[in-house]
Amino acid sequence: MTSKTLQLQTLTCPSCINKITAGVKSLPGVERVEVLFNSSRVKVDCAEDTCSYEDIKNTIEQLGYEVLSEK
Questions:
Q1: Could you tell me the pTM of the whole model?
Q2: What is the pLDDT of residues 28-44, one digit of tens each?
Q3: Angle subtended at Cα 52 by Cα 51 and Cα 57, rounded to the nearest 5 degrees
Q4: Is there a contact between 67 and 61 (Cβ–Cβ < 8 Å)?
């Protein structure tokens, strides 16, 4: 199990949380997703061998959000 934290550009509405959570949770190996609205961060716990930063980043960007960096 590994944890990844991604910094997003500012989230503008609480419904963003549900959209991002559902999208990232659909990835193979993802165990837990926490979207922090106030700090615009996404914390992901996932299986180390099946989940990559790039997979998470691409999923979030396909949903229409900009990923600034991995923290």
A1: 0.92
A2: 999 999 999 999 999 99
A3: 115
A4: yes
